[in-house]
Amino acid sequence: MNKIYQWVLFCCFSLGLGFFPALQAQTIDLSGLSPTNTPPGTSLTIHSAEPPTAANQITNLSTVQANATYYTYFYDTVEDCYSSAGLPLYATCIGVNPTPTNTPAGTSLTYHSGLPVSTVNQVTPTTGFYYAAFYDLVNDCFSDEVIGVFFGSCGPPPELTNTCPAVNLSFTDATAQSTNVPVGSTITLHTAQPANASNLAPNPVTTSGTYFAAFYDAVNDCYSDNSSEVTVTINSCPALNNVCPATTVDLDAYATANVSNLPAGTTVTWHTATPPTTANQVVDATSLGTGNYFAAFYDIANDCYSDDAGSTTEISVEIVACCTADAGMLTADATEVCPGGILSATPNGDIVVPTDYEVVYVLTSGAGLVIEQAGASPSFTVSTPGDYTIHTLVAETSDNTSPDFLDLSIINFGTTPASDVVALLEQGGGSICGSLDVTGAPITVLAANDPACNNDCNDGLTAAEICAICNTTDGTNQSNTLCALDCDNDNISNAAECDNGTDPTDPDTDGDGNPDDSDPNPLMPRAEDDMGGGPPNVVVTVDVLGNDDYLPNNDPANLGTTTLTDLGIGTATGVVMFDATDGTLDYIPTPAEAGMTVTIDYQVCNDESGAPVCTAATVTITVAACPSPVDTDGDGLTDCEETTGIDDPTTPTDPGGMMSDPNDPCDPDPSAVASGDCDGDGNPNGTDPTDDM
Q1: Residue 509: other Cβ atoms inside 10 A
Q2: Residue 23 CA, distance from chain mean position
Q3: Helix (H, G, I), strand (E, B) or coil at 547
Q4: Average pLDDT of span 243-252
Q5: What value does the mean pLDDT take over residues 591-598?
Q6: Most CB within 10 Å of its CB: which of 243, 408, 547, 608?
Q7: Which tens digits make up the pLDDT trace of 532-583?
Q8: In this model, does residue 228 exceed pLDDT 70?
Q9: How many other C-beta atoms can be found within 10 angstroms of the C-beta atom of residue 501?
Q10: CA angle 377-382-383, nearest 5°?
Q11: CA-to-CA distance for 182 and 30, rounded, in angstroms?
């Protein structure tokens, strides 16, 4: 009889046994399969294809895709090989009735609990593993070849849903949401199984519920034998609204932006009813009002609309009323005023005030437009210098029962920015009809000592404001009395400081503690490298601040507190001692550094500005290499050689790195002084064979 490995030929395309659209892949657990005939030393393996290999072996058996065919083999781990023959295995969900497409004439599909298949072990499958065969009724025999079929619990059924603003699910949308649709076919939804024309669901589907999905071949006018249970969820969608100031909706533009599956040779048309016809087609879809509209594809060459293909999508349009309030614009009466003066502006005449609305003028400060004052006229008095703006607000501010009521009590003067009010209005994304002229009329309140007002050091001018007046390099305001003053008392006039770039309001521009009038580098603190030298074990003192901009703390001119810190990244290994009081470094070289040049990297800081202002520099120390010939104890080693262990090449004796007492002729060599008596036995070292005993 025919082998039953192929279960897929149907109509004009291929199907998988137990078909289901791959919307959300259903899975089945095969990890519990355990054959009773497993040969010793082998294990069961399941593969997605033949021949079996490690590459096509399925390793995660707990979540295998359902309704698909696999291949089972025994694997010998010692010999690293698979059994020569395997068994095809079809994994399907409980409740699915697989229908092979190659059933020989006069036969039927039977299930068995064991091998060889017979009428004795023929069963009705429930959950678990079975053998499937064809039974020949006339000849009373079973097919020679069988396959395994496993029925198990599957994951949740696939889900289909509408995509807003569409309020239904067309068959076209269902097809677009599937991933395994054969070429030339579409998804159809049915109210029962098997799928046929009599149980077709309405297209489009408008009601949530459980349906059965099948493949439909339009050319051959047939449905797939197997269908899959799917859950259809129709979500409610907000209506498609106009975007003010437009009072209509352009559905042609909407289709251009959102339709991605337009068939070749077609256009999108809009209709007031279904099925789509020329009679119910909207003539101009660029300016539609409130209503429900249906999209369809129109085939220009064949002069027909999509209908039974299920491409009709319903969209609800709702026109919302647009706000007509317009604050218009203002023009400042003067762009600069002195403290205590009046800031005022004049409306340009383009304001629109709806019935029952009020006009409020608002004064804001700074770039953040912080609300400072509000009133019925565009006129305000301000004493604090700065940038201000007068705005017009048109809103319903009195009737708290109106849906467009703007509650001005939310404003805290001096804190609330104008953006908080705008955010409540439609112009800022809110829901209240109103209008605020954000640009407004900018006005600057000058400083009290501005040339246009008064000029002295008590007016609180910033350095930039002073230099805007006193920068003599551009010839402006050179005769202003403010420029001859010294606002920071550093013995440099405001004009001179503005010319050389220092701060006329800060006696120490660079914050290094050294006043501008004595600082050689007043704009940038500097610390210069230093040098010093001396022998090992002797203190070397270097005045590190002597050539720096920073001043020691014992200097009365120091405007802050100076600190000196060893950065610990130099090569010196001796004792390092900084003293910020007098600005010095004391260093004691080690004997090992004799004849070497070592470095000490330090950081100097001053807190005059309120925060540490720091700079770094390097001190280079040259350590002497024992040049002194003095030999106090006459033992042939100079005092330097004995205290450091370093050899002086001008002497005949080498200390060998050992240090000794420069005042003891018996240390380190008892025989070094022949006339001495190191062991005190009365026999001089020169003739005593045991001069150290």
Answers
A1: 24
A2: 31
A3: helix
A4: 88
A5: 87
A6: 608
A7: 988 888 899 999 999 999 999 999 999 999 999 999 999 999 999 999 999 9
A8: yes
A9: 10
A10: 165
A11: 27
Q: Left if phi > 0, otherwise alpha if psi is -120 to 50, otherwise beta: which for 128?
A: left
Structure tokens at 659: 């240090």
**Straight-line distance from the first to the last Cα atom of the chain, in angstroms, rounded to the nearest whole number:** 118
pLDDT at 692 > cutoff 60: no
3 state SS for 139-188: CCEECCCCEEEEEECECCCCEEECCCCECCECHHHHHHCCCCCCCCEEEE
| Residue 257 phi, psi dihedral angles, 5° rounding | -80, -20
Full DSSP string of 448-490? TTSTTS--STTS---HHHHHHHH-GGGTSSTT-HHHHS-TT-S
Distance CA 375, CA 361 (A): 5
- The pTM of this model reads 0.34
Residue 627, preceding peptide bond in cis (omega within 30° of 0): no
pLDDT, residue 480, reads: 63
Residue 542, CB-side half-sphere exposure with 13 Å CA sphere: 26
Please list the helix, strand and coil fractions of the chain in percent, rounded to the nearest 5, in that order. Answer: 10, 30, 60
Helix (H, G, I), strand (E, B) or coil at 53: coil
User: pLDDT digits over 636-678, tens only?
Assistant: 888 887 877 777 777 788 887 788 888 888 888 777 766 666 8
Whole-number Å distance between alpha carbons of 390 and 335: 11
Q: For the chain, what is the radius of gyration of the CA atoms?
A: 49
pLDDT tens digits for 1-45? 222 222 222 222 222 233 333 334 567 889 888 888 888 999 999
Q: How far apart are CA 142 and CA 316, in angstroms?
A: 60
* pLDDT tops 80 at residue 164: no
Reduced to 3 states, what is the DSSP secondary structure of residue 410? helix
Backbone phi, psi, residue 420, to 5°: -65, -35
Match 């087609």 to its residue by tokens: 281
Pair 159, 230: CB distance under 8 Å: yes
User: Looking at this protein, which amino acid is placed at residue 483?
Assistant: C
SS3 letters across 197-253:
HHHECCCCECCCEEEEEEEEECCCCEECCCCEEEEEECCCCCCEECCCCCCCECHHH
Distance, in Å, from the CA atom of 257 to the CA atom of 9, rounded to the nearest integer, reads 40
Beta carbons of 238 and 165 less than 8 angstroms apart: yes
Q: What tokens does 25 get?
A: 């892949």
Identify the bridge partners of residue 623 per DSSP, sorted by sequence position. 534
Phi-psi label, residue 400: left if phi above 0, alpha if psi -120 to 50, beta otherwise? alpha
Q: Which residues of 616-652 are buried (b: 16+ CB within 10 A; e: fewer)?
A: ebbbbbbbbbbeeeebebebbbbbbbbbbbbbbeebe
Choose among 533, 529, 546, 540: nearest CA to 583: 546
* Contacts of 340 by beta carbon, 8 Å cutoff, 6+ apart: 381, 382, 383
Question: How open is the CA angle 174-178-184, to the nearest 5 degrees?
Answer: 85
Report which secondary-structure segment, H or E, holds 72.
Answer: strand 68-76
Query: Which two tokens mark 255?
Result: 């289709």
Helix (H, G, I), strand (E, B) or coil at 591: helix
